[in-house]
Design goal:
This is Membrane dipeptidase (Peptidase family M19). It comes from Algoriphagus boritolerans DSM 17298 = JCM 18970. This protein is an alpha/beta fold. The protein is built from 17 helices and 13 strands. The protein has a single domain, classed as TIM Barrel, CATH 3.20.20.140. The strands form three sheets. Strands 1, 2, 3, 4, 5 and 6 form a six-stranded parallel beta sheet that branches. Helix 15 packs across helix 17 and helix 16 packs across helix 17.
């Protein structure tokens, strides 16, 4: 029997959008049947083909226990105000919620609850309410329980029907009692007080994101752009685009507060320059604690090196307000038999080689997301004979004519464009190495059932690149360290994600592990890499899917 760990999945997030009065419970999965009244319209609004991709429960505690998860990191999260505003900006969505407010659909996705969230100024009260909604014991099946770990002595791997939980904070705004407060010093003091409140509730916070997806945390650092899916589906996400710059002086004080509380800094959602400034600050101040990226994709490239860089894959750059809209090609590095080479999502919310090196050097933890968009899959399509969807671009290759390439869209603030030197560098010189748009379009049209393994290849792609980097960092020992200490799964289940087809919820994690065991060694050999000596592929799977994360958690407990 295989056990599982996840460095970032939600136990209560979908209940935050439900009708007040406990009409839903985290202990019972939200199903397609719960949403049946408004489901057809909901799928049209979000341009989704499968409800299991996003709205049905992916990681409720009952499903996790049934699927042999032993320990997970649960984010404490209050929805970003600008995110709720962006959702509310689409009138057809709000009319849908209003239309079905007296049905089961309206209990699960509550119109009234959205109005409350728009007005809520005490973000920490949402976190406290979530914890109150999550009883330690399953009210539907006595004997199943959650143990919030605060000490190693509580750990019991053999305990049946038990899910061990530690917490993270997704966006430091989630620890704020007054979102109207503008004074960074007062905000920082408030965050410290609320961390103490969590400790008094016997909640262990293992890691924290300094920012999330809007500008609410601009006093501490700039965020990376995360909401291109909303842009594509015509929600007004302009207030979710980054306009600030780097890591601020109060951001550095926040890092020190987290260090004092033995909380790891989670670099997910930080803008690239904020991350780079964080590494410099840590080095200058002798900070050696582990860095975490709890639910990430890999860019597949360095941000800057002599041979290639982020700029090498920039297809276009256009000023829009205080940000630049940047189209980035999808670097293709590794091959799989009978399939197009999967391209990486090289947008700046994902990890460059320099970020992975910082995590590796700190003995940190890197959780690979299971969101198809994050790890590089894209739904490219041909609209007519000569027209393609917006995520396909055309380049000229000397002596070879034109090539259709896959792209992603990013937004980078004006200040960070300047600080990162993107105004005065050569752009696009490696676009010919990007994933082929025609190949993917032909694959989708030729046999849509072949898309699922292609998404799985994007998952393998992440690990392949980390193996390559481990070899670069430390040879054979570096490969072993990467696979048996650093990497884990950080799915982001129930985080409103489009999960990869072969693992749409925690119930399919064992299938994903088995496919990893059957396919990864062949992919390693085919791409000129190697596994560490004396480690079977089955033992490496144990490490990535369970033991690396478990060991990291236990090491951080008293």
């Amino acid at each position: 029997m295989s056990y599982f760990f996840d460095s970032h999945l939600h136990l209560t997030l979908k209940n935050q959008f439900s009708k007040n009065g406990n009409t839903t419970t985290p202990w019972k999965a939200i199903t397609k049947n719960d949403l049946k009244e408004g489901l057809p319209d909901l799928l049209k609004i979000f341009a989704l083909g499968l409800i299991d991709k996003m709205f049905s429960s992916q990681s409720s505690p009952d499903l996790l226990i049934e699927s042999n998860y032993k320990v997970v990191v649960m984010p404490l999260f209050a929805p970003d105000i600008d995110l709720v505003k962006a959702l509310s900006s689409k009138k057809v969505f709000m009319k849908l919620l209003e239309k079905f407010q007296h049905t089961r659909f309206g209990e699960v996705l509550s119109h009234a609850r959205y109005q409350d969230l728009l007005k809520e100024k005490n973000a920490f009260s949402i976190v406290e309410n979530d914890l109150n909604l999550l009883p330690a014991n399953d009210p539907y099946q006595p004997g199943r329980k959650i143990v919030f770990l605060t000490a190693k002595s509580q750990w019991n791997e053999g305990a049946a029907n038990t899910l061990h939980v530690v917490c993270s904070v997704e966006g430091i705004h989630s620890l704020r009692s007054n979102l109207d407060e503008k004074n960074p010093a007062v905000i920082l003091e408030d965050i410290g007080k609320n961390l103490k409140k969590l400790q008094n509730r016997n909640i262990k916070v293992l890691m924290a994101n300094l920012t999330h997806i809007d500008r609410m945390n601009g006093a501490f650092c700039n965020q990376a752009y995360a909401m291109d899916g909303m842009r594509v589906n015509k929600f007004d996400e302009k207030d979710l685009r980054p306009i600030h710059h780097g890591l601020t002086p109060f951001g550095k004080k926040l890092v020190m507060l987290l260090e004092q509380e033995k909380i790891c800094t989670d670099i997910k959602h930080m803008s690239p320059d904020a991350r780079f400034e964080l590494y410099h600050y840590r080095s200058a101040n002798g900070i050696t604690s582990p860095l975490v990226s709890s639910h990430s994709g890999i860019c597949g490239i360095p941000f800057r090196s002599d041979s290639e860089s982020f700029a090498s894959y920039i297809y276009s750059s256009v000023r829009e307000g205080d940000s630049y809209r940047i189209k980035v090609g999808k670097p293709a590095k590794y091959t799989f038999a009978n399939f197009p080479s999967p391209g990486f999502n090289a947008t700046t919310i994902n990890l460059f080689d320099e970020d992975i090196k910082a995590i590796y050097d700190s003995d940190g933890l890197l959780g690979i997301s299971l969101d198809e968009r994050v790890i590089g899959y894209t739904k490219a399509r041909r609209l007519n004979q000569d027209t393609y969807s917006d995520n396909i671009g055309t380049i000229q290759i000397a002596g070879r004519g034109t090539k259709k390439i896959l792209t992603d869209t990013d937004f980078i603030s004006k200040e960070e464009n300047l600080a990162l030197g993107l105004f005065n560098c050569t752009k696009g010189k490696l676009l010919h190495r990007c994933a082929d748009g025609d190949e993917l379009v032909d694959l989708i049209q030729g046999n849509s059932t072949d898309i699922a393994p292609h998404q799985f290849h994007h998952f393998l792609n992440q690990i392949l690149h980390c193996v390559k980097l481990g070899k670069d960092f430390g040879g054979v020992a570096g490969v072993e360290k990467m696979l048996t200490k650093i990497l884990c799964v950080g799915s982001d289940f129930d985080g409103l994600i489009e999960a990869i087809d072969w693992c749409t919820s925690c119930q399919e994690i064992d299938f994903l592990r088995k496919r990893f065991v059957s396919d990864f060694e062949k992919a390693i050999v085919a791409n000129g890499l190697f596994l560490p000596q004396n480690w079977s592929i089955d033992r490496i799977a144990d490490r990535i899917f369970y033991e690396n994360g478990r060991n990291f958690v236990l090491k951080r407990l008293n």
